[in-house]
Write a structure and sequence with these properties.
With about 625 residues, the chain is mainly beta. It contains 7 helices and 34 strands.
Amino acid sequence: MRSHGQSVRFGTMAAAIFVIGQVSNAAAQTVEELQHLSIEDLTNVEITSVSKRPEPLSQAAASIYVISHDDIRRSGAVNVPEALRLAPNLIVAQDSSQTYAISARGFNATTSSNKMLVLIDGRAIYAPVFSGVYWDQLQVPLDDIERIEVISGPGGTLYGANAVNGVISIITRNSRDTQGGLADLKAGPLDQVGLLRWGGTFGDQGTYRVYGQGFGMGPTVLPGGASAKDNWSGEQTGFRSDWSSGADTFMTEGDVYRNINSLNGQQSGGDIVGHWNHAFSGTAALQAQMSYDHQVRVMPGYHDGYDSYDAQLQYTQSLGRHVFVGGGEYRLITDQLVNTANVFVLVPSKQTTGVGDFFAQDTYAIFNNLKLTLGAKLEYSSYTGLDVLPNLRLGWAVTDQAFLWAAVSRAVRTPSRLDRDLTAPVLLAPAPDFESEKLIAYELGYRGRPTPKTSLSISLYYNVYQDLRITGYSMASGYLFQLLNAEEGETHGLEAWGDWSVLSWWRLSAGLNLEHKDLHVKPGFVDISAGQSEGFDPGYQAMFRSSMDLPHAIELDAGLRFVGQLHGAPIKQYTEATFRVGWHATDRIDVSLSGSNMFAPRHAETVTPGSSIQYPQRSIYLGLRWKF
């Protein structure tokens, strides 16, 4: 599941075509521990997303970057998309006040960022209309996030269809780590966010937290400098509880929210999740999770909503040199879209679809320092029938400080409602035979500590795509405009990042992302959308970050991001800077001053085809954080 942001206001989607175009309850480090980890400790932070079981980051055979709770706090970010800018293996571009395009390894645009799977505590954040993420509806309180694990590369074997180019797994903190009260306020001329939270206990082994959050986001501006009048505001409330009894642990959490924008639009919804984990004697565990998600988006002349029910079961067993993970999942989605704002509609307007799967993966230790992972997922979709998603990975710990890995994977993006059912009289015919987009990915990587004070990760990839989407027609069938599986080709690139502990109180970080695309329409087809489904990707992105712990309990953080010109879009290369100055006034009170977009009062990052380019503005705000 991929990235998007605001409403795919149906007018936005239609214009793009018309132009024409887990919860894993593994023990995790506390926030206080993560704040003081050395370079060596950071490379061994325990993660769960690569293998769906706990393992050290240093031994994960995948391109994965971990954003810690402290990273988020010190970044000064006001929402999840801004926090994701910390990941050097992601491309994050803001399109409007509500809308973001977020992807890994290409295809980044508000209408094509549909190849990333996003999870919150194992719950998939998925909009069935366009296979993407409404980022304005993902308002997880940042202080409640323990870490974000960002995998670039396929994750289909463990996570299923749509985990094509990567997985973003947001893992929230156990409620035992959020006891007592917290008031967190960030306010400036453009953006304001306020959080009030309380955590307590029940019984001998139970803890909980409840929270309320409100926010207001200022508008972007148009090329001439006038306001785009896309400011919006919202409120959200929720809870999480955790408790244990012997070998069993339980977690429940839920949220409800409502957003209102200046275009008389409203988004509302809620979710609830229940998770159970049982540890057997020895080295086995059984997990079960159920969730329900309800979302509604309303704009003048437009109504989009869905209800999603999901059940998951997973079993993990260590036996000798083998570590086995297997399980299954079933998801039922009922969605409805009604559009009277223009001629683009879905037929039928309401539909129920189901997706079920079974997966199994075994990691075999050939030698103590050489491990082979082999797995596959069998997934059945109402749209496309059966897909087989295999995965082969090899990890070699050459030394205690150097780890090499290689992988070959297959992943697919199953059709969305837009792909199959979008139609408009005369302009666009439905595409009932639209198939899954397919990827075979080849990856090679290194992760290690060249010196005691440095860490480095380098990944190379070569992706082969088939049956990608275009908006066009087949010359054999005549001038009938449809969404078609008529593009193919390759992409390749490099992802690299590292850290350097210059001094005990000063850490430098850097990241580099290079990508080249060679995609082409199949013979006999014509793409009338000028390659919009390929996305608008920069050839390079470079990042630098400095974090200092100064005397008198002062923190100083600064970041630079260099982004190359977007291919296929009239947006030039740009440089963007952020800063944060924080002061721990007492053990319970923190004061900060943060800013983003510091090199220019405004700049463009992406564009929605058929719409005016909108420029995110410079934002400066004061922060106050009080524990009580």
